[in-house]
Amino acid sequence: MTDYSLLLKADTGQPARDIHLVDPKTYEDWLKVQPERHRTALAARNFKAKGHEHAILPGEAADDWSVVTSVADVGNLSSWCLAKLAQVLPAGIYRVADRDIGAAAHGWMTGQYRFDRYRAPKDEPMGPRVLLTRNVARIDEAVRVAQAVALVRDMVNTPTANMGPPDIEAMATTIAKAQDAALTVTRGDDLERGYPMIHAVGRAADRAFAPRLIEIIWGNPAHPRVAIIGKGVCFDSGGLDIKPSSAMRLMKKDMGGAAHALALARLVMESRLPVRLHLLIPAVENAISGNAFRPGDVLTSRKGLFVEIGNTDAEGRLVLADALTKAMEDKPELVIDFATLTGAARVALGPELPALFANDDALADALLRAGTEQDDPAWRLPLWSGYGDMLKSDIADLSNSGEGGFAGAITAALFLQRFVDEGTPWAHFDTFAWRPAAKPGRPKGGDALGLRAAYGLLRERYAPA
């Protein structure tokens, strides 16, 4: 795993290669004051200052070279404006000339992410590309966030055989020990009495992959209580309503919500935010066997509501419902959950934009603002109460799947809302946790979508001045 603390260092005037930033508006003026050798090199390269374009600028000596790259706006650097450079430049030490790097530090680090767990080691691995910054106070924070993103990517990219419920538990155990937090795990048949829907969804899995509810408690009990919940369906076959093979191919990523929740919780603890943190991860495999739950079954929830199963492939909301109920029992002042919950959200918003639902307008606005500031946008969809009728059941309090095929992301969120106490601010991220195509700093595969937005909100609300 990449050690991101090696990639961002304080600028103390040490030798480094310069990176010159230009944008389409400033390029011509910048070019006029460059030495002839630079103008000649750029003309030969046909450099046009387009997005993510870069060129090597020769120096007076053979090894005395620097770099120019084009960004969208030199006065407002995004997280991703240096990410491509971090992927293609030789190993070495670099500094951005004439300005601080700001948000671009994030893309510089995450651009060097590699998932190589299942690849034979190279004889001569590429060394780090180090970026210098004058904003020394922000180095530790930037590294923590990059490491959190990498944790999500690593967990989602890992196949289920190595990222099942026991593996998520082991990872939570390691993090809890490192932060001196209390860990509680309820496993297997012990779930049946207190968390019956988590038990029902996961009971068909092999004994080694028995369902469990993983909880971490951290922080001063006198501080505001914040609950973070993540859907941990480590593989989703669809259950008896089995998915086709094409839809099952990426279901190793159905624990992406758990990965987000665990990474966010670690950020909260590492940053020492003054909160009483309650992390809940229902970790299950939605498998098929003789004791799998069935379409038409009626499950009892922890809250006491009876849920008719209209579709066994709508299992994520069931395990989240029991976890939400448990979180509410301790009267949190804020609840955030993450889940790879619906294909409908992807149809509406595509793979890069998480759907955000919230029962509190101020909370939704703050999360959207934080997402914009962190280059981690989300899009709010409505908790449209008129669609609640789609969850009606003829024989139970509600059904787990809406009828008619309409508004799938909204009806899933409305189902979760039934397990949220009225008056408790709650936000739900329906995230894809996956990039089907690579972009600078964002490789194809597992990714954190909504994580930095949520952390930005928590830091803004709770961080000491």
TrEMBL record:
<dbReference type="InterPro" id="IPR000819">
    <property type="entry name" value="Peptidase_M17_C"/>
</dbReference>
<protein>
    <submittedName>
        <fullName>Leucyl aminopeptidase</fullName>
        <ecNumber>3.4.11.1</ecNumber>
    </submittedName>
</protein>
<dbReference type="InterPro" id="IPR043472">
    <property type="entry name" value="Macro_dom-like"/>
</dbReference>
<keyword id="KW-0031">Aminopeptidase</keyword>
<keyword id="KW-0378">Hydrolase</keyword>
<dbReference type="InterPro" id="IPR011356">
    <property type="entry name" value="Leucine_aapep/pepB"/>
</dbReference>
<comment type="similarity">
    <text>Belongs to the peptidase M17 family.</text>
</comment>
<dbReference type="GO" id="GO:0030145">
    <property type="term" value="F:manganese ion binding"/>
</dbReference>
<dbReference type="GO" id="GO:0006508">
    <property type="term" value="P:proteolysis"/>
</dbReference>
<keyword id="KW-0645">Protease</keyword>
<dbReference type="GO" id="GO:0005737">
    <property type="term" value="C:cytoplasm"/>
</dbReference>
<dbReference type="InterPro" id="IPR048816">
    <property type="entry name" value="Peptidase_M17_N_1"/>
</dbReference>
<dbReference type="Pfam" id="PF21337">
    <property type="entry name" value="Peptidase_M17_N_1"/>
</dbReference>
<dbReference type="GO" id="GO:0070006">
    <property type="term" value="F:metalloaminopeptidase activity"/>
</dbReference>
<feature type="domain" description="Cytosol aminopeptidase">
    <location>
        <begin position="311"/>
        <end position="318"/>
    </location>
</feature>
<keyword id="KW-0464">Manganese</keyword>
<dbReference type="Pfam" id="PF00883">
    <property type="entry name" value="Peptidase_M17"/>
</dbReference>
